[in-house]
Amino acid sequence: MSPAAASLDPVPAPSRWAEATDAAVLCALADRDEDALRELHRRYARAVYALALKSDRVNPEAAVQLAFLTMMRRAGDQPRSLLGARAWVLGVACWTLSRSLDA
Known about the structure:
mainly alpha
C-alpha cells in the first residue's frame, strides 16, 4: 500500500458522529463542527481520492484536502430536501476538482 493510500485509511477510533446519518453529519459540518469534518473524511476520503486520481491531478492528496475544505465552507448551502448527502459530497468534490483543474 502506498503512503498516500495509508493516510486515507479510516480513523480507528469511533467519533461521536460514527452512528449518525450523512445528513446529520452535514448539518453539524454547517455549524463548523470539526469532528463532523473528520467523520465525513473517514466516510468519503477514498471515494474523493479516487475522483482525484481519475482527474489526473499532479497532487491528488492536495486535491482531496481542497475538496473537504470546500465542503466545510459550503455545508450550509447544502439543499437537504433536494439532494442526498452522498450525492452532495461527491458533487462538491467533482466541482472542486474541475475548478482546480481550470486554474
